[in-house]
Design a protein that fits this description.
Layout (H helix, E strand, L loop, with lengths): L1 H25 L8 H5 L7 H9 L16 E11 L3 E12 L11 E10 L4 E11 L4 E17 L8 E18 L4 E16 L16 E14 L10 E11 L9 E15 L2 E14 L7 E2 L15 E2 L1 E12 L4 E13 L10 E15 L4 E9 L4 E7 L4
Antiparallel strand pairs: 1-2, 2-3, 3-4, 4-5, 5-6, 6-7, 7-8, 8-9, 9-10, 10-11, 11-14, 12-13, 14-15, 15-16, 16-17, 17-18
Length: about 400
């Protein structure tokens, strides 16, 4: 449930940002005129200036004050192809705007919504946004998601090679507030709550261990903290700098949660330019859970881009490590190529039901198409080979 909510937030933000930039490219008349265009109007020997002087200040049109400065309403249907939940479409509507027209430091804020419709019957939507305030001193994130997902979990031992089809219906809310403190670090509290029901879909599998959370209405509530730092010049296509993000969530029965457990996630990225058109990007990822979480709140490969080539639902574990390196090449005519490789490891904890300790290699390549020259926002298509097979995925922006 929480993993789906995080994925929806990322999808919403990246989709809205791409749509706004695409809309901006389609309507160049909304951009300010160049100096050459402004000076090209004939003056007829100064007649224009004389008329302006005669008209006086009352002839000047009054400028209307706009709350929050100029923005853009965006609508975009995006395709999705996922081995876990099928193929379909993600309709997106959003509004991107500077929270204050006087603030030239903060990134643009985003509010909007996104839906999910796939051919395996999965449905869902998310409403939310991110606000950047006071010259990027404060960042506020909130989102509400509701989903009815059809997916499966893979078995081990006597159930190796089998996939148990499940349905999970639920909703979740996330709120986050961080403040810039020192050395470009942001820190602040998080709050998460939600509930869901998991059932087994009709199947012919008889020897698959049923997860203990099936058939139970589960409520999960957590308070946590977030610490992040970003020194890259452009988050859409970083060419230098680093990015660090750490989150911790503490689910407790004292808060109304059915389970008491802890979740920790950390990511570190580093970027370097070989020349104008070549970039090396490095990513390291760590996940850990403690206590007694439901199986779907463990660390899961395949829900994000921590290690491509693996299907979500195949590897659940208490502890997870991954690292990867990607080479990015910009080609003429808006195209680009990438090649990547990495390795990960899943480490089950005590009483873990679906995991065994394994090293997981990954490698592959992809094609990029430049959607926005100004902001270097790419459409991403990657094919990756993992330990058990391959995956193909598309998205907006780089994998990390």
């Amino acid at each position: 449930m929480a993993n789906f909510l995080r994925a929806c937030i990322l999808l919403l933000i990246s989709s809205c940002v791409w749509s706004a930039y695409a809309q901006e490219a389609k309507h160049p008349q909304s951009q300010p005129e160049s100096k050459q265009q402004q000076s090209s109007a004939p003056t007829l020997g100064g007649e224009s200036a004389q008329l302006k002087a005669a008209a006086g200040p009352q002839a000047q049109p009054k400028k209307k004050k706009k709350l929050g400065g100029p923005g853009a309403i965006v609508v975009a249907p995006l395709p999705i192809s996922s081995p876990a939940i099928g193929s379909g479409i993600v309709p997106v509507v959003g509004y991107i705007f500077p929270f204050s027209s006087k603030d030239k430091v903060s990134p643009p804020s985003v509010v909007g919504g996104a839906g999910l419709i796939t051919n395996n019957g999965s449905r869902g939507f998310v409403l939310g946004g991110q606000l950047y305030l006071k010259e990027d001193t404060y960042r506020i994130t909130s989102a509400f998601a509701h989903a009815n997902l059809n997916y499966g979990v893979y078995g081990t031992g006597t159930a190796a090679g089998l996939k148990l089809p499940l349905n999970q219906n639920g909703q979740a809310f996330l709120g986050e507030f961080v403040r810039r403190v020192w050395w470009k670090f942001f820190v602040g509290p998080r709050f998460m709550t939600g509930r869901s029901l998991i059932t087994v879909r009709p199947n012919n599998i008889s020897n698959f261990p049923i997860p203990p959370d099936v058939g139970i209405h589960t409520t999960l509530t957590a308070i946590g903290a977030k610490l992040t730092r970003d020194t890259s010049p452009n988050r859409f296509y970083p060419t230098s700098g680093t990015y660090f993000d750490f989150t911790s969530d503490f689910f407790s029965q004292a808060l109304g949660s059915k389970y008491s457990f802890q979740s920790y996630k950390a990511a570190f990225d580093k970027y370097g330019s070989l020349n104008k058109n070549q970039v090396l990007a490095y990513n390291a990822y760590f996940c850990a859970t403690g206590g007694k979480p439901p199986f779907y709140e463990n660390c899961v490969f395949g829900t994000n881009n921590e290690l491509r080539g693996y299907v979500a639902g195949q590897y659940f574990a208490r502890y997870m490590l991954a690292t990867q390196l990607e080479y990015r090449l910009v080609l003429p005519k808006r195209f680009g190529l990438v090649a990547f490789g990495g390795i990960g490891e899943v480490i089950p904890g005590g009483g873990q039901l679906y995991g065994i300790q394994k090293f997981l290699p990954s490698g592959g390549g992809g094609l990029r198409f430049l959607l926005s020259k100004k902001y270097h926002v790419n459409l991403r298509a990657d094919i990756a080979q993992g330990r058990d097979g391959h995956t193909f995925g598309m998205g907006v922006g780089e994998a990390f």
